[in-house]
Design a protein that fits this description.
Layout: H1 6-21, H2 23-30, H3 37-41, H4 56-69, H5 73-99, H6 106-132, H7 136-141, H8 143-168, H9 173-200, E1 211-223, E2 226-237, E3 240-242, E4 245-255, H10 257-271, E5 273-274, E6 279-291, E7 294-309, E8 313-332, E9 338-348, H11 351-358, H12 361-381, E10 396-405, E11 411-422, H13 423-436
Antiparallel strand pairs: 1-2, 2-4, 3-4, 4-11, 5-6, 6-7, 7-8, 8-9, 10-11
Length: about 450
């Protein structure tokens, strides 16, 4: 668990000293007026009138430096989420390391490595976005610490890449263990730099007191003769208590990359048709990408319309190629069930095919079949309650779901919900979370800020 070092306390003392030494100037700044207004107007205290002997100029200079880089409320929220994701990455690294050395364990190692890769990518992405949101004053005042944090991020990426290569090559356990240790050191340095950054911005890094990491759960499904796996992992955050009820926020992440690979074959099975007298549809390509909070299916298809005259005469009435996009939005119903709502997006097609897609039955049929097929896959592979400890499932509620992309183009589904238990069941639930979790405190060493 992180703890705050003396830096935050020192800044508080400096800030307090500045206010005590020169309250008029501080209040003028807070109210939007001119700093040092008392002296300018002739009514303020002069330096010679102060019994303390503290240099006002030095105090106010330090005060202004602190205020210039101080985090906004929005930044504090983003910082807490950034630290949380880094802790989750540490938990996934521990879970991966636990798998090394077990015999005949290559599939599990690969699964944990994939989960670790996603966690690291999320942590690094949030870290980058956080720094990109700095004001000009923050960029200037935090230049040195952000430079060090950027350096640790680069080292973290290098170590992660080295470990991924060894897993892909099915390297010896001792070799992977050595790389995992290198990654652990890089992640520790990365996390320490984040804590130091928070201290510089006057943010107390106490947001990671307790987090229970849920081990990855792999769902192997088969749809339209296409086997695929959806792996779900997540974290249960520390509880808040109110009125005899204890609430544990839950966030799960499901890896949908197998569906991305197989989506074209899945949709060929569901959408293609070849009527002798009627419509013939062939799916050429299908791509599934994130458009948070939705996912978009883009399909290139070939369309033909044939007509029969008598028993022996068959004529082609129309033919063409086109592209359609269908947006799928996750919705959690009142019953807690997850489904996908479909909306027809861009249509690039001409002639009879374009008319049928835009205003005829063809567009509606394709949209509904796509939604039905992918909803079925999601229902089979993504189960909010099943990813939780058995005794927690009856107290768990799913509130929101959304798709999310990664920098590498991988599609994820994020599930947000909570576990609510009464005080008399709190101890039992906490014990079960600890037993099934690979972490009940952040795995990084306790850090003392500079």
């Amino acid at each position: 668990m992180f703890r705050n070092g003396s830096g935050f306390e020192v800044k508080t003392i400096v800030l307090g000293a500045a206010l005590l030494a020169y309250p008029c100037g501080a209040l003028a700044q807070h109210g939007g007026g001119r700093v040092g207004g008392g002296l300018a107007g002739g009514g303020g205290l002069s330096a010679n009138n102060r019994a303390s002997g503290i240099e006002t100029k030095d105090d106010l200079g330090t005060f202004h430096e602190i205020m210039a880089v101080q985090a906004s409320n929005e930044q504090k929220i983003a910082y807490a989420e950034m630290l949380k994701r880094t802790a989750v990455a540490g938990a996934q690294l521990k879970a991966f390391t636990d798998q090394i050395g077990k015999e005949n364990n290559a599939p599990e190692i690969a699964t944990h490595d994939k989960t670790l890769e996603d966690a690291l990518e999320t942590a690094r992405t949030l870290n980058k976005k956080f720094m990109e949101g700095f004001s000009e004053a923050q960029k200037s005042g935090l230049k040195e610490i952000t430079k060090r944090l950027t350096k640790t991020d680069s080292e973290l990426a290098q170590e992660a890449k080295a470990l991924d290569q060894e897993v892909d090559a099915n390297a010896a356990a001792t070799q992977m263990a050595g790389s995992a240790q290198g990654l652990d050191r890089a992640l520790t340095n990365f996390q320490r730099a984040q804590v130091d950054l928070g201290e510089e911005m006057s943010i107390e890094s106490n947001s990671l007191d307790v987090a229970y990491n849920l081990p990855p759960m792999k769902a192997s499904i088969k749809f339209a003769n296409q086997p695929m796996a959806i792996t779900t992992s997540g974290v249960v955050s520390k509880s808040t208590a109110e009125g005899g009820q204890n609430t544990f926020p839950v966030e799960l992440t499901s890896d949908m990359s197998d569906l991305q690979v197989t989506v074209a074959d899945v949709l060929r099975d569901q959408l293609e048709k070849s009527d002798s007298c009627g419509e013939r549809i062939a799916i050429q390509t299908a791509v599934l990408t994130a458009d948070a909070p939705a996912t978009v299916v883009e399909i290139q298809l070939h369309f033909e319309r044939w007509a029969c005259f008598g028993r022996d005469t068959v004529n082609e009435m129309a033919e063409g190629n086109g592209t359609i996009q269908v947006k799928l939005v996750p919705i959690v119903g009142a019953d807690g069930e997850l489904r996908l709502a479909a909306q027809m997006g861009r249509i690039d097609a001409q002639g009879l095919m374009g008319d049928s897609l835009r205003s005829g039955s063809l567009g509606d049929t394709l949209r509904d079949k796509i939604a039905e097929s992918l909803s079925s896959i999601v229902r089979q592979g993504v189960d909010f309650r099943a990813a939780l400890p058995a005794d927690a499932r009856s107290y768990a509620t799913l509130h929101r779901a959304q798709f999310q992309g990664t920098g590498s183009g991988k599609l994820l589904m994020i599930l947000d919900g909570e576990i609510r238990v009464s005080d008399d069941k709190l101890a039992a639930l906490t014990s079960e979370l600890k037993e099934q979790s690979s972490i009940n405190q952040p795995t990084r060493p306790e850090l003392t800020a500079r």
